[in-house]
Amino acid sequence: MQKKAIGLLLAAAAAYGYYRYSKMTPEQKKKMMQKGKGLLKDNFGGIADFFGTQKTQTAGARTNM
Questions:
Q1: Are 46 and 54 in contact (CB under 8 A)?
Q2: Where on the phi/psi map is residue 52: left (φ > 0), alpha (ψ -120 to 50), or beta?
Q3: For residue 33, what are the domain limits?
């Protein structure tokens, strides 16, 4: 029974978050994205590379597999 209640609370929190995000102005959305990227960079360091950043490869560094 508790798993259902936790799932319901999680779904309600996600729905509320989506509602709040949909009501934000573009400036507020941009500010929130910058804050989130700063949080990832400050707290998770190397893990932040998995979200949103792309690494470029030079022609000499590529390997054929």
A1: no
A2: left
A3: 1-39
pLDDT tens digits for range 22-62: 999 999 999 999 998 888 788 877 665 666 655 555 555 55
With CA atoms as reference, report the closest residue to 25 among 13, 16, 33, 37.
33
The tally of domains found in the chain comes to: 1
Task: Evaluate whether residue 46 is within a structural domain.
Answer: no
Interatomic CA distance for residues 52 and 38, integer angstroms = 13
Asked whether residue 14 is domain-assigned, the answer is: yes
Q: Does residue 54 fall inside a structural domain?
A: no
